[in-house]
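TL;DR need structure tokens for one chain.
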Amino acid sequence: MSGGTGSSASARRGMLGAGWVEVPPVPYRDPASAIMEKPEVPEKRRFCSRCGEPVGRSRDGRPGRTEGFCRACGHPFSFTPKLRPGELIGGQYEVLGCLAHGGLGWIYLARDHNVSGRWVVLKGLLDTGDADSLAAATAERAFLAEVEHPNIVKIYNFVRHGDSGYIVMEYVGGRSLKDILLARRRELGEHASLPLGQVIAYGLEVLRALGYLHGVGLLYCDFKPDNAIQSEEQLKLIDLGGVRRAFDVNSPIFGTPGYQAPEIADAGPSVSSDLYTVGRALAVLSFPFRGYTGRHLRSLPPRDEVPLLVRHESYYRLLRRATHMDPARRFQSAAEMAEQLTGVLREVLSADDGRPRSAPSTLFGPEQHTAGTEIISLPRMRGARGAAGSPNGAQAPVLAPLAPVTAAAALPAPLVESGDPAAGFLAGLTGRDPHELAAALAAAPMPSLEVSLALARVRIELGALDEAGRLLDDIAARHPDDWRADWYRGAAALAGHRFADAIAIFDDLYDLMPGETAPKLALAFCHEYAGDTVQAARYYETVWRTDPTYVSAAFGLARVRLAVRDRKGALEALDSVPRISSNYINAQLACVVATVRGRTPGELTAAALTEAGRRLENLRLDTERYNSFAAEVLEAGLAWVRASSRPLVPGPRHPGEDLLGTPLTEPALRRRLEEIYRLLAKLADGYDARHDLVRRANAVRPRTLF
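>> reply
TL;DR here they are.
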């Protein structure tokens, strides 16, 4: 929607919420129906424009005055509309009535008799005697007519009438975000909020508008849900009364308690203070934010008190960064905040409906390789006569353990900045052996930040952590604001088994970029090694559910579920790797070994064994690999048959009691295993491997009378 007005409703809808959110349209409101029958400012909203003290309040049973003087400072006030229906303003705008009242004045509906009788809005001054308000209106006339953006109300003109001035702007028929929220609460109860996906969709539209204003050197200053209107399928900022030039240090500053950044009084408005108001508005719209103008005027409520924030950690972290007390710790541009908010939106929607929403990152490349697919190919020797395991099978490893340095090397790498002088050189180094890559980087034709970062990454992958640390210290000293040095510090800590340090580093980076997947994957690895399977599973699940291009997360989720003996959950994670993935076969093989490995015969069933066999038969594997896994499945079947005291001679079998085409009887399984081990011995490389397989074949050979 923000890229243009669009030629159709579907085109506009496709832009709203990055094309992922269906926001219910708000019907266009007939302008005539929006006119207030009795225009007046409620007493509770009457304040002196100079000192802020309450004015015009009831006393001794008498209603408060709408005009008078402030008892605290003597400044005059007036809350009476100055225009009457039928008045002609500027020789062309016929007043029809009042629409609303706001911080800078009354808002009137009028018709433009010079432009086909179109509906327009006239915005006057709340207090004509207030010089600051008059100066603000004059500033609007000077530059706001040049603002042109589909998410910002269009200013047509500025006219004077008597001793007052009026801004002429387009009429936007619809409802403000505040009114949409209040309507939902009337329908569902006072604690209801808007759906989080819808709130984020609104936030993205607001950020596009603010990004445009910031790009032309303007600050909005006073964003709040009252100041954005949804009309049909479009969102617009409507109140430009507080807009000022970024370099303006003299104009009055307008803001609203509960939304305004804390540093405004001392440092004035800025891009980061504008983004602060967006963060506060998102919070107000998405959960019952009690005390946001009082107890939590400068803070978010504790996370554990807000179920929405407990469920959506990334959204909580985004709000926390957007509304940080230190402006330097906030988002520094609307584009940066929108980018991270879009990532949070994908995660939120995937958590709600279970459908993944992959998208390329603008900060990271893909994961370097899939960690955790290393599966032990050959089964362990199960005793001289095929007894079940070592000694009972319970201690056998299920999935191959993942080395920390392997996990660190698998993490996505930050993207190379295209402006770096060595960017072209680095683009040609992909896919090399780490040792060759290290040599090539050491001989780079020119030194640069990107070359140093790439060399640090390769040193970590090779386990040369001291060398990597020295490189990163130098990078941090020369580029203290570059987060990528911290990313590789975290990777080095992970590779070096310093898991607490790695968690602290990646947790800070998660705060910095709450919409990115990479820090969550890194935290999942770290928590797994630290033994916190609950946290590891949570991060793995978040990553995998949102973006299935990170297949390492599926294998990690399977590992931590197996660690807590949730075999069913592990199989579900592995089964969710799609057929089109290059790791589908590895995932299915992992399902096979997860079914039979590390289990006592008493934990197995005929159904589990035959299912493992079915999986294996459905995979296209070379002869050696197929038979290696077939041997492990058949060994498990043999152990189960022996423990079940099943007949030792072939006899009648029930349907389904075949395992890889072999009857589930001890003699048949032994004969098949002997054949497989002798075949594998012929295919083996080296005398020792061949000898071991022949020994296995002899050990499992069926008993005979001769």
